[in-house]
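hiii so um. not sure if this is the right channel but i have a protein structure encoded as tokens and i wanna go backwards to a sequence. like what aa goes where. can anyone help
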């Protein structure tokens, strides 16, 4: 039977390093650098510490390293702990389509499996490309959040396929990995609604863990329910509610080249609003001069980060970095968006919260029409002296059409990693990743990440 699971399995089993253009290999290295930087930046975050504490109870003779430590855990557990680190700051890369995604969420599960088996750098690169290819093409095909499911649901499939490729499973076992991953793939959108919790970062790590576990089971002969997508009670009927036959594969450029790297640690739909606010900041001597702020935005931004009452009074870092009114107000008040703006002291500051109350979010038909090709925001600041300042940004720094160059990417990495590793050791990590395609064993990379 020609099912989607079968087609995905055939593609995964057949993808080889020789088919990857040099530009795609380079983009993989850039995403690994970015992900490791984000992970080191989140080292002390409470949910990441909790995940590391739990996973540290379980060891493995080979296994995969908990980044920053010498402890080796079963690969699915390592995928979870490391995945929490990559996602926590909401600073890792983004892909926007019918469903938004952070496809670098595939990197921790891929690296965990690669370490478990002592894979080469080239094998890891292929698996990462595969994760991006599958997740992004699924996002192109059907929205999940519109139906109450979270975008991380797709990561269960992409991570299972990448893990199966690393394990060199044949097509039939790879298909079973997809079946096993899919039957419990659904993640509720409640993880990103209202006041957000620790689980915002952990939910995708959990999806990656499930994908790895599915591939390990399939590798030993475990079978899963089929057809997982097209079945009477399958994914298309109950979750996507849309046929997914249009998915796949290599329809033009590899999908990793269409993803965007963030310049600021906040939800992606706010990136152009941050840019606009920072451009306006020098013209505002004192935020007390601000009478009101209007942010004209596209539907996705309004729905995800600009409509719920909690966004005007965030009570957690997770809510603050997903609040368009808070992020714009903080950028205007502080002239920056860094980790500092998402500290509890800052998002509880009465003066800043008073400014947030003066922010109004409006849907804009034209900006919505241009989404996701452009992720634009138009910020209008009305001052008490009658002046009106405004700025519109279509492609924020880091967008696929306005990318960070390698030097800017390295600067972002050092800003996150140096405080943990020191500048010299952080530079050594960069050297290893830039030469990822030459590594005989990817465990070399994990060894460079051990904190002093």
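sure thing!! here u go:
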């Amino acid at each position: 039977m020609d099912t989607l699971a079968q087609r995905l399995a055939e593609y995964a089993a057949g993808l080889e390093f020789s088919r990857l253009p040099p530009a795609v290999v380079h983009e993989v290295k850039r995403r690994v650098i970015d992900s490791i930087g984000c992970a080191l930046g989140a080292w002390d975050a409470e949910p990441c510490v909790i995940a590391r504490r739990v996973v540290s109870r379980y060891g493995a003779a080979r296994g995969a390293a908990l980044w920053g430590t010498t402890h080796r855990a079963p690969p699915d557990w390592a995928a979870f702990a490391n995945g929490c680190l990559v996602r926590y700051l909401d600073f890792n890369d983004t892909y926007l389509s019918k469903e938004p995604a952070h496809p670098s969420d595939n990197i921790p599960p891929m690296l965990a499996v690669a370490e478990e088996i002592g894979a080469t750098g080239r094998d890891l690169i292929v698996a990462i490309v595969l994760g991006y290819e599958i997740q992004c093409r699924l996002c192109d095909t059907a929205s999940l959040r519109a139906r109450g499911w979270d975008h991380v649901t797709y990561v269960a499939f992409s991570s299972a396929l990448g893990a199966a490729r690393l394990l060199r499973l044949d097509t039939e076992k790879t298909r079973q990995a997809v079946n096993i991953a899919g039957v419990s793939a659904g993640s509720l959108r409640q993880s990103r609604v209202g006041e957000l919790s620790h689980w915002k970062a952990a939910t995708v790590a959990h999806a990656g863990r499930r994908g790895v576990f599915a591939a390990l089971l399939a590798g030993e002969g475990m079978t899963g329910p089929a057809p997982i997508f097209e079945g009477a009670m399958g994914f298309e009927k109950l979750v996507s509610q849309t046929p997914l036959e249009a998915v796949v594969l290599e329809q033009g450029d590899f999908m990793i080249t269409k993803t965007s790297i963030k310049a600021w640690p906040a939800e992606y739909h706010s990136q152009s609003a941050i840019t606009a606010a920072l451009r306006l900041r020098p013209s505002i001597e004192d935020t007390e001069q601000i009478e009101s702020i209007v942010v004209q935005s596209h539907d996705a931004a309004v729905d995800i980060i600009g409509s719920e009452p909690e966004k005007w009074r965030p009570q957690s870092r997770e809510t603050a970095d997903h609040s368009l009114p808070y992020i714009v107000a903080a950028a205007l008040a502080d002239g920056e968006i860094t980790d500092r703006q998402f500290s509890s002291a800052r998002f509880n500051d009465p003066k800043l919260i008073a400014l947030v109350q003066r922010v109004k979010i409006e849907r804009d038909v034209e900006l919505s029409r241009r989404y996701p090709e452009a992720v634009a925001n138009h910020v209008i600041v009305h001052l008490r002296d009658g002046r009106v300042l405004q700025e519109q940004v279509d492609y924020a720094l880091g967008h696929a059409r306005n990318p960070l160059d390698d030097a800017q990417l390295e600067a972002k990495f050092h800003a996150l990693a140096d405080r943990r590793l020191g500048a010299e050791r952080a530079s050594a990590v960069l050297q290893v990743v830039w030469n990822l395609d030459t590594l005989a064993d990817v465990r070399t990379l994990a060894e460079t990440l051990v904190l002093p």
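oh and The CA atoms of residues 58 and 97 lie 38 Å apart.
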